[in-house]
Structures are given as C-alpha cells and as structure tokens.
Design a protein that fits this description.
The structure holds two protein chains of two kinds. Chain A has one domain: Pyruvate-ferredoxin Oxidoreductase, domain 3 (3-Layer(aba) Sandwich), CATH 3.40.920.10. Helix content of chain A is 38%, strand content 25%. Chain A has seven helices and seven strands. A seven-stranded mixed beta sheet of chain A has the order 2-3-1-4-5-6-7, sandwiched between helices. In chain A, helix 3 links the parallel strand 4 and strand 5. In chain A, helix 1 packs across helix 6, helix 4 packs across helix 7 and helix 5 crosses helix 7. Chain A is globular. The longest helix of chain B is centred in the middle third of the chain and has 21 residues. In chain B, helix 1 crosses helix 6 and helix 11 packs across helix 12. Chain B is of the alpha/beta class. Chain B has two domains: 191 residues, Thiamin diphosphate (ThDP)-binding fold, Pyr/PP domains (Rossmann fold, 3-Layer(aba) Sandwich); 111 residues, Rossmann fold (3-Layer(aba) Sandwich). Helices cover 42% and strands 19% of the residues of chain B. Classes of the chains: A alpha/beta, B alpha/beta. The interface between A and B is medium-sized, with 23 and 26 residues.
Chain lengths: 183, 361
C-alpha cells in the first residue's frame, strides 16, 4: 500500500500539523512515511501545503507532481491542485471560501464543512482534525488507535489534555463528510 | 533499536550532533537550514553534555570559530546554506591547509547570488572541487534521507579525525526540510581532555607541557620547498581517502542497460523514475554516490563496460556529470538532465530525458 497525499490551504489552518499527525500515525503502524512542506515564498504569502506519503515499502521521491488524494482548503489550492489528482483518485474540499468548486468527473470528490463544524464545536482550532477525520472515513489508511498514538507523539505533553477534544473532532469529521456527485 | 522519531532533516542534524558527543556548534541562520541551530538552542545541550551552541555574528565569524575550536582537538561543527557557505570558503581553505578535523553542513539552495530558498545541487563544484583557494579537498558526504542526515554527522566526524581533514555534509533544501522516520543513536559522552590528548595530542593546541615541543596550528609556510612538501602530504592523504572511503549505493544495476547517476534528493526522484522506466520496458539502474569526494570513479568505470549509457540527474546545469564523464572515459554516452533555480523535476520528466538524450540519442 502506498498513499500519496497533498494537503493545501492557508497558513494557520493547521495544514502542516495535520500532515504531521497523519505521518506520525503511519509511523505508529510501522509504515514508511515522508512529510514534505512548502517552505518557500508561497508560505510567506499565506498559503501552505504539505505532501505526505505513507507506504509499506521504501519511499522513493518525497516530492510529487500527482497525488492519490488532494485535501484542498482554499481557492488558490483548488486552482493549483485539482488537476494534480490521479485519474480515479480522491479530492476532498471544504466549501468555505470556494468560489469555483471542482469540476473533474474522472476523480472521486467529497466535501466537508470543516470550518462550519469547528465553529459549532466552539473551537476553530479543531478545524484540521475535523478534516483529517473526514479523510480517514474515505481513506482509512491508518487505524484509529494509531491516530491517537500519533497525536500523543506529535503534540507536546502540555497539550495532551486536548487529545480527547481532537479525537472528538476526528469523529465529527468522519460523520460529516459527504460525496459530491457531478452531473 | 534506538529511539524512533519523525523529524526534519535539519532537526536530526542537531540531535545527532548532541548524541555523538559534539563539543561545539557555531552558526548563523539562513533558510533552508535554520532549524539546525533552532533545535540545538531548544535542546539546551550546554546543560546536559556541555556542548557549546553559539550564534555568531556572521558566517565568516562562524567558520573562524570553527578553526579555533578544531585547533584544540575538539569536535566542532557549523552549518549554513549556499550563500553562507560562499562566505565561509576562505575559512574552509584555511581549515584544509591547517589539516583541522571538523564538520560543515551545507543545505543547498538555488543560486547564484542570493538566488532562491528552494532546493538545489548547484554547489557541487564549490564543495567537491574546492571553492576556496589552493589544492585541497573536503571529504564530502551526500545524504538522501533523514536517516542518512543523522548517520553522517558521526561518520563525518569519524572521517574528519581519521584523516585530519574537514568533512562536509552536502545536503539540500528538500532533505533538510522533509520529515521522515529516523532511529536516533544513544547518547555518547563528549571526549574527555585525556581522550583528546590521546587522539589529537600530537598536533592540537591542548596546552604545552614541559616534556614536549609546542604544537603550532597554521596553514602558513613561507619556505616554498616546505610548502611543496606540505602539499605532497595533503595529496597523499587525499589518495588514501580515495582508496579507502568511497561509499555508494547501486540499485538494480545488475541487469541494467541504462544508469541514472544521482545523489541526494535527485537520487530519490530517480528511484521513482526508475520504476516508471522499468514499467515502460527500459532496464534502468541507479548508481548513487554517497561520497562525492572520494567519488566512486572505479564503480562507474566498471558499469561503463556493460551498460549502453548514463544519465546524470542533478538540480543544476551539469556539474557532477563532468566526474561521471571522466570515470566513463568516453566508453559510453554520458548525458545530463537537470532543473535549476529551486525547481524539482517530476519523475516522468527524468524518464523523458532518458528517452530523448540517451536511449534515442
């Protein structure tokens, strides 16, 4: 199994940490992982993205130009990454702030109201975990108990009291994601 | 098994330095390697192992602090990225001329000039061929994974002290910034004064005792006859390094008709390109130099007898390709493919280059 993922959105949405938690969850189940962030000028301009690869085998290139799954959290990222999803691959997006929704018919598209649900939970910082939950519902690449371990490993100990809240957000994400059928 | 962590290449350099018993780090921040000093500062090793971590006022200052520290027989290191390494090159020549063991990390970014902060391999000539003045060589290690970033810190120090020569880890922005699984080595103690005396007492400035002559660390020798003797000694040492320390990885070269020669992050891209090429029916292998000096000349020469052609893949306009051509010595075609300015080629772009430049050429 190899899963090649791009997560892309605004700085501050928790894109990089979401990727890190996913990668750590992979480590917890003995997978090979790479996590490659954008660290260049685009990051300084406010957008952020990270490529995460989970695999049972040695990982070749950590930098990719097409992906099994794209998780897209703003319009700029939609413009840039919708076309990079492999045919038959998966695109997950949050419609908040999306003016031009995805149009491709050769991929599987899902949407999740992460920003809205996070506001409903009363904690906007749970946004990235809601999105992660939605992703894991569609692509259960890591086991729930390993996500918990991944959270424990990637969060500093002083934040461990927030793990139940994060797990709740992941569950909410799993319950909220829905398929988009283009006609 | 050691401790398993998910870390950035740059962070791992800091962890590995503390764990292998490094005595001192002197550096100046520059993207994409600033996490090295950030991680060192966060870990506060001066409270545990006694390692000194110092942010100097410039790269020029860092490299001269390195000279001072290395002259006392301590295990000291610095890190920077391309423009910063340019500022250090005078110091690198002095370190080589004074035969001072130390470790330098270059996390390359695109040049020339201030260039870009994205990954590049355009410092090959600078780091492998000299950069500074005079006939000198650095021992150059090229990691292609986060684990190798970790492992090459201790290896770099070991080789530096074995040969009394500066060693460099030549990495790039991709390997420095990405996180992978890494097994961290157990903590080792720093060398005691007695150990330093035993290992480097014959040359290091550890404090003169009554029963020996003073040790003088310098690269200056105004007597030309003696300066030539010094150079001959350096050259003999470089030949010894070439004979003993070549490291490389050969991936699927046994049945290969075509060989990618690539190091660092390019070698990772080539692994994916190799899969694509093999699916297309081309028998492709990879020769990945792990040491850039000493270069795996003989191993490439041996492959030249059995394959049809070579493609070097580098994030530059064609630098290592010259060493591959010298190794192949005209027996087979050697072509180059590269992107510049911080652009990383896609694996399929590399396969297209192979088809157009080598297979079809």
């Amino acid at each position: 199994m190899t899963e090649e993922i791009i997560i892309a959105g605004f700085g501050g949405q928790g894109v990089l940490s979401m990727g890190k938690i996913l990668a750590y969850s992979g480590v917890m189940q003995d997978q090979e992982v790479t996590w490659m962030p954008s660290y260049g000028p685009e990051m300084r301009g406010g957008t952020a993205n990270v490529t995460v690869i989970l695999s049972d085998d040695r990982i070749s290139s950590p930098i990719l130009h097409e992906y099994d799954t794209a998780i897209i959290l703003n319009q700029q990222s939609m413009d840039k990454f919708e076309k990079t999803v492999k045919i038959g691959g998966t695109l997950i997006y949050d419609p908040n702030g999306i003016i031009h929704p995805p149009t491709r018919k050769d991929i599987n598209i899902y949407k999740i109201d992460g920003a809205k649900k996070a506001a409903e939970m009363g904690n906007p910082k749970t946004f990235n975990m809601i999105i992660l939950g939605g992703y894991l519902k569609i692509k259960p690449v890591v086991l729930p108990e390993n996500v918990k371990k991944g959270l424990e490993k990637s969060l500093p100990e002083r934040h461990h009291k927030l793990i139940p809240l994060n797990l709740e957000a992941i569950q909410l994400g799993q319950d909220s994601i829905e398929a988009v059928h283009l006609t | 098994m050691g401790e398993l962590k998910l870390m950035k290449g740059n962070e791992v350099i800091a962890e590995a330095a503390i764990r292998c018993g490094c005595d001192g780090y002197f550096g100046y921040p520059i993207t994409p390697q600033s996490e090295v000093m950030e991680t060192l500062m966060n870990n506060r090793p001066w409270e545990t192992t006694g390692m000194v971590v110092l942010q100097a006022e410039s790269e020029t200052a860092s490299v001269n602090m390195l000279y001072g520290g290395a002259a006392t027989g301590k295990r000291v290191m610095t890190s920077s990225s391309s423009p910063g390494i340019s500022l250090m090159t005078e110091g690198l020549s002095y370190l080589a001329g004074a035969e001072l063991p130390c470790l330098i990390l270059n996390v390359q970014r695109g040049g020339p000039g201030l260039g870009t902060i994205q990954p590049s391999q355009a410092d090959y000539f600078q780091c492998v061929k000299g950069g500074g003045h005079g006939d000198y060589k650095l021992i150059v290690l090229a990691p292609s994974s986060v684990q190798e970033m970790h492992d090459f810190v201790e290896l770099g120090f070991d080789l530096a002290f074995k040969y009394r020569n500066p060693a460099m880890i030549l990495s790039d922005g991709a390997i420095g910034q990405m996180m992978e699984k890494v097994e961290l080595a157990p903590q080792k103690a720093r060398w005691t004064d007695e150990e330093i005396q035993e290992i480097s007492g014959s040359w290091a400035t550890t404090g003169k005792t009554k029963d020996r002559k003073q040790n003088v660390v310098t690269s200056l020798e105004l007597d030309s006859e003696q300066m030539e003797q010094n150079n001959l000694k350096f050259q003999a040492k470089y030949q010894e390094i070439q004979k003993n320390e070549v490291r490389y990885e050969a991936i699927d070269c046994e049945d290969a008709d075509y060989i990618f020669v690539a190091y660092g992050s390019s070698a990772r891209i080539c692994q994916k390109s190799m899969q694509i090429a093999r699916e297309k029916g081309y028998k492709v292998g990879i020769l990945r130099p792990i040491t850039l000096f000493p270069f795996p000349t003989e191993q490439i020469a041996a492959l030249a007898d059995k394959v049809k052609g070579f493609l070097t893949v580098e994030l530059n306009a064609g630098q290592m390709v010259e060493d591959v051509r010298l190794s192949v010595n005209g027996k087979k075609p050697v072509e180059h493919f590269g992107r510049m300015g911080g652009i990383i080629p896609s694996p399929s772009e590399v396969v297209t280059a192979l088809e157009q430049k080598v297979i079809g050429g």
